[in-house]
Design goal:
Length: 342
């Protein structure tokens, strides 16, 4: 009888302890079930540390040192469920903030991929950068210098950190972005096919060197925070302008799984219900421009022999998070299939 009682007490204690641990991890990691050993601890190395991010869903906010930019770059990272080595980079739009990546703020990509065996990689910051390496300070204000070396960070510095701390392979990545980030996703994937096996553009601007594009980008950068387009690549005839135009990177995407989307710019019922008329007008103009440039890019891509290309042109939709979030959900299965990350 004593042995039976002792055994029962032992089982009850083990049960209570297990529940307490599970609940504790759930609270720390954002009220998610504690089912993934690969996610239950914060990562850290000799110089960089991570904290639990307020968005929850196992997202860690890590400070990653960039030698090229001379500072730590915050990166929000959701580890793969079961330790898979695939990574999905999610790039922000023109008005990226220094507080959070919009993919877990305006929609919740971490919730979308919470049960997936792929590591989400969401860099914070880079407003107006096009995620490129700039020639000089990005702002006109000499008292507020901005050193943008985003291509170097994303393709040379961050991969080693992710490999060491999160098990993400350097050659097994997908990259997706909205608007400015969509432009950068195709450019970076075209220039670095050894790193990115898949690239997705949601309402990107995919022909940045056609007549009028320089002026449009100049105005957009000024409006986004006083950024100087001349500091990006130099003169209007500088070869780097063309190297960073997705239109001229199709050759590097021949073996890449590519998905591009842009809606018509016609407001649907959800747009009308959720956005003011003035926001609908700007969203219509931007999305129409994205569609024109995306269709032009598609023509060249198909002429260049891209066989693994899928396009999506919804009949309704504006340049807003209803459209971007819709595409994120729609492409989840494609991403997980391509990256073998279910």
């Amino acid at each position: 009888m004593t042995a039976l009682t002792s055994s029962l007490k032992g089982r009850m204690l083990a049960f209570v302890t297990a529940v307490a641990v599970a609940l504790g991890l759930a609270v720390v990691a954002g009220a998610q079930p504690a089912h993934a050993a690969n996610r239950d601890g914060l990562r850290a190395d000799a110089t960089d540390t991570c904290i639990w991010d307020g968005v929850g869903f196992w997202v860690q906010r890590c400070d990653v040192w960039s030698q090229a930019m001379g500072r730590n770059i915050p990166v929000q990272i959701q580890p793969a469920t079961n330790g898979g080595n695939a990574g999905l980079y999610l790039l922000d739009g023109l008005r990226a903030t220094e507080d959070t990546n919009a993919w877990v703020n305006d929609v919740n990509a971490a919730q979308t991929y919470v049960d997936s065996n792929i590591t989400l990689v969401m860099p914070v910051g880079g407003a107006g950068s096009f995620y490129a390496d700039w020639n000089s300070s990005a702002k006109y204000d000499l008292h507020d210098p901005v050193n943008y070396q985003w291509e170097t960070f994303l393709t040379s510095e961050l991969p080693g950190y992710l490999e060491s701390n999160f098990g993400v392979a350097r050659n097994n990545n997908s990259i997706a972005g909205l608007s400015m980030g969509g432009t950068a996703a195709l450019t970076l994937a075209g220039k670095h096919p050894e790193q990115f096996r898949q690239a997705l553009s949601f309402s990107g601007f995919l022909t940045t060197t056609v007549p009028g594009a320089q002026t449009a980008i100049r105005l957009a950068l000024l409006d986004a925070g006083g950024y100087n387009i001349n500091a990006m690549y130099g003169s209007i005839i500088d070869p780097r302008r063309f190297e960073n135009d997705p239109l001229y990177q199709t050759g590097g995407l021949r073996n890449t799984d590519v998905y591009v989307s842009a809606a018509s710019g016609i407001a649907g019922p959800a747009d009308q219900a959720n956005y003011l008329p003035e926001h609908q007008a700007s969203g219509a103009a931007l999305e129409a421009a994205s569609m024109v440039t995306t269709r032009a890019w598609e023509l060249k891509a198909r002429a260049d022999g891209l066989s693994r290309l899928t396009t999506d042109y919804p009949a309704q939709g504006l340049h807003n998070w209803l459209q971007f979030g819709y595409q994120l959900e729609k492409t989840k299965g494609r991403v997980l299939d391509t990256m073998n990350a279910w």
